[in-house]
Amino acid sequence: MKITFAKICWGLLLVLVLFLIRPVGFILYAYLKDKDAQTTVKTGLAQDASRLNETRVDTVVKVLPGIAAATRQISQLIKQAKAEGKKISIAGAQHSMGGHTIYPDGIILDMKTFHGMELDSSKRILKVGAGALWSEVIPYLDRYGKSVSVMQSNNSFSVGGSISVNCHGWQCDAPPISSTVVSFHLMNAEGEVLNCSRTENEALFSLVLGGYGLFGVILDVNLKVVDNKNYVVQHYEIRSEDYLREFQKLVKHQGNVGMAYGRINVNPDHFMEEAILSTYTVDSEQPEKLVNSTNYSFLRRAVFRGSANSAYGKNLRWKMEKMSGSLIDGKKFSRNRLQNEGVEVFQNTDPDYTDILHEYFIPGESVAMFIKALKGIIPNSKVDLLNVTLRNVRKDEDTYLPYANGEVFGFVMLFNQKKGAQAEKEMKELTGKLIDIAISLKGTYYLPYRLHASKEQLDQAYPAAKSFFLLKKKYDPDLLFRNQFYEVYGR
Ligand SMILES: Cc1cc2nc3c(=O)[nH]c(=O)nc-3n(C[C@H](O)[C@H](O)[C@H](O)COP(=O)(O)OP(=O)(O)OC[C@H]3O[C@@H](n4cnc5c(N)ncnc54)[C@H](O)[C@@H]3O)c2cc1C
């Protein structure tokens, strides 16, 4: 048989089709079976991002826009709740996962409608209603060439919820968000409005930041903002055990890296042996104005969700992520564009499963040891780990319950959990083990997620927890502001 050039071309095409047929078919299947998010909660019930906390509540009260109206409304509500013996919990976007915004038969104060904002460009300070979401703040700041200084890796959260958990993000070499709070107005349990800053009502300032809504209602916040800048992206494939050394070399010693994060592989092939470190170096060009762009989010979502409960999907995703990293190397993105993505791009919408986050804050010198421990524990437990990112966080000097007691690396771990008692039990056991390891390495864990830690673990990771809850009783003797976090650890 004569082998012609045409036959070779057809042969190569066939090989290419055979090579692509499985991954393309897999992604298409993941895309087609993906469900729409169920966002509505039945009247009289409340729920949070865990989708495991459906609870009957008394009422949900939407806060009126405008400071004068909101102040009158909330102080009236406080009087009425006290008279009727009801409790108040405070909610932003409800992305905490342990009922931190919910109290059974309580009143939920929904802050999202209290979202006005005003920028003082000369002082670089944004005055913002606590209910404003970052997805509202970022486009507003973009108009003035400014950007949020510290926030989470997504834009779906409220300012009040973010400072009440003292969030952090992938802005590198930065402490948590509390470092960017200049002051805020707080309505306390007596219905009085107090200005809290580092020099006025200082004790309340440090209790309310990372205080999980237990000391009063944060009304408006003065936040430091920064210039919106352009960044050049670069991805580096490294060995996970070298993470700290590579981070020092590629981020710390460069001096001009504005944002950075790491990802560790969770696919079964060489589980947690590799990492991708992504750096965003400040560029001299002026950033473009924010535009609505989808960034191939439907494809990223299909690849991500396809990896749930699938070893093939996880291997495919890791390969595609490495490939896409090298494709965008050298491209430029504005800070506002990088920070302006919602959680819905990756959110679990499967009614039988839910996504659960954990986060452990580990000192740099113990990062490799923590990874080694994870490699031993995770494959032997019946959990589906979807993602691990690493961000560095500098020491928190401001809050009463700090999770960053020095410079630490936050391991953000996303699990796909089946709904039901058995999976919940397994997750609780795993969480207990991981918290013990974090504590043994002089690290801590993050408090806005599931309330699986024991009281002893809370006290070990947060030695100030006991006095925190005693101070709660001092500032709120009737225990008006209540939520599940307080019920589990404060009572
Ligand atoms: C998908 C996902 C990604 C995440 N990524 C990150 C991340 O990158 N970095 C990070 O640090 N965290 C992250 N988190 C955690 C997140 O920062 C917290 O859950 C945060 O609380 C979310 O803000 P929220 O508006 O949803 O707060 P909510 O869940 O509504 O509230 C959280 C706490 O704040 C209190 N609170 C809210 N508003 C007020 C107010 N006005 N006055 C007083 N108390 C108030 C509530 O009572 C509650 O105790 C993530 C969570 C999810 C689900």
Automatic annotation (TrEMBL):
Keyword Iron-sulfur tagged: no
Transmembrane segments: 12-32
Any one GO molecular-function label of the UniProt entry: FAD binding
InterPro entries named among the record's database cross-references: ALO_C, Cytok_DH_C_sf, FAD-bd_PCMH, FAD-bd_PCMH-like_sf, FAD-bd_PCMH_sub1, FAD-bd_PCMH_sub2, FAD-linked_Oxase-like_C, FAD_lactone_oxidase-like
Alphabetically ordered keywords of this record: FAD, Flavoprotein, Membrane, Oxidoreductase, Transmembrane, Transmembrane helix
Gene3D superfamilies, per database record: 3.30.465.10, FAD-linked oxidases, C-terminal domain, Uridine Diphospho-n-acetylenolpyruvylglucosamine Reductase, domain 2
One Pfam family per UniProt: FAD_binding_4
PANTHER family: D-ARABINONO-1,4-LACTONE OXIDASE (PTHR43762:SF1), L-GULONOLACTONE OXIDASE (PTHR43762)
Protein name, entry field: FAD/FMN-containing dehydrogenase
Organism: Pedobacter steynii
